[in-house]
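> call design_seq(struct)
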């Protein structure tokens, strides 16, 4: 759908007509990508991070978190369990932990690829050679949010990081033929509605295949502890407009939405989303990977997480995707 910035700002600001907007996004989702909901098994394999983003619970400067790093065999073992439970995509996510060098990561990817699954990496900013090696080893998709396109805001949120470098990384990933996932947080301190509208236009411009949109939730052990977070409703409207702008992409119902409301992900699935990423991280690790507070199901087992969400998906008249759920936008390229 052709929507300009002014129109997007109006849609994002219009709380009164939110229901109508979400219905429209739901219709567009049905027409373009159908009723299947694709499930991805998410494994959070290290909470060690070299970065210090002000909003993030696992920022380097948070000395209250107990840090962990899975051994490659442990991560591969968890991926195997996720594949056994039925996942056709495994998402491996971590802080920017350089223990996982190019070679270590490639060994992991090659082993996980033997499980006959699609592999998504979400491990942050790396060199071109690394992205290339990961792709050759068998990674299919890469997920890295731009977080915000307001460069001043981005740099305020982490003075040591470079927006331009993150953008360059996204371009490298795209150029290497990965299915590209990006996204933003909404409700960041100092973020305007106009800026969110620009974010959406940016995601369209760079041609993402997947866009994750979540509310910012202040974490008590960060410098932004006392800020006001984003609302579920604004996050839902942003996601719905994303669906109107990019009808063929994959849009996850994000975990952060569920943190703000017990049915947050179901509301998202009825407002334009078509992907859910149940947490497959096992044991104590799950609660140690706390990017924001209120993360759901920190005590549940992986199998329970999957069956619980699958049951809900079916109860709203949708089906569970049977393939690996490649985005339609990517398939068309
Ligand atoms: N609130 C919401 N989302 C957060 N993320 C990190 N910290 C927070 C927070 N406090 C998101 C970022 C990151 C993704 C993995 O988690 O968008 O890219």
């Amino acid at each position: 759908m052709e929507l300009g910035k002014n129109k997007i700002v109006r849609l994002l600001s219009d709380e009164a007509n939110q229901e109508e907007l979400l219905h429209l996004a739901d219709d567009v989702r049905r027409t373009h990508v159908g009723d299947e909901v694709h499930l991805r098994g998410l494994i959070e394999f290290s909470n060690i991070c070299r970065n210090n983003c002000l909003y993030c619970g696992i920022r380097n400067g948070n000395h209250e978190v107990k840090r962990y790093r899975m051994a490659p065999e442990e991560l591969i073992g968890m991926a195997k369990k996720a594949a056994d439970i039925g996942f056709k995509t495994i998402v491996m996510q971590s802080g920017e932990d350089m223990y996982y060098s190019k070679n270590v990561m490639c060994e992991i990817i090659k082993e996980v690829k033997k499980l006959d699954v699609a592999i998504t990496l979400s491990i942050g900013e790396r060199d071109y050679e690394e992205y290339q090696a990961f792709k050759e080893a068998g990674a299919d998709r890469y997920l890295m949010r731009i977080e915000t396109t307001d460069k001043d805001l981005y740099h305020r949120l982490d003075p040591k990081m470079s927006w331009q470098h993150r953008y360059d990384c996204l371009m490298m990933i795209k150029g290497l033929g990965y299915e590209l996932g990006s996204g933003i947080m909404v409700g960041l301190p100092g973020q305007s509605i106009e800026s969110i509208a620009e974010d959406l236009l940016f995601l369209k411009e760079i041609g993402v295949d997947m866009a994750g949109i979540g509310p910012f939730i202040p974490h008590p052990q960060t410098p932004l502890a006392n800020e006001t977070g984003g609302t579920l409703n604004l996050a839902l409207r942003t996601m719905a407009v994303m669906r109107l702008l990019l009808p063929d992409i994959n849009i996850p119902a994000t975990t952060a939405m569920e943190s703000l409301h017990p049915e947050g992900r179901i509301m998202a699935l009825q407002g334009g989303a078509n992907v859910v990423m149940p947490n497959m991280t096992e044991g104590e690790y799950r609660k140690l990977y706390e990017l924001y507070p209120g993360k759901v199901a920190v005590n549940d087992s992986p199998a329970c997480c999957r069956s619980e969400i699958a049951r809900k998906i079916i109860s709203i008249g949708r089906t569970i995707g049977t393939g690996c759920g490649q985005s339609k936008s990517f398939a068309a390229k």
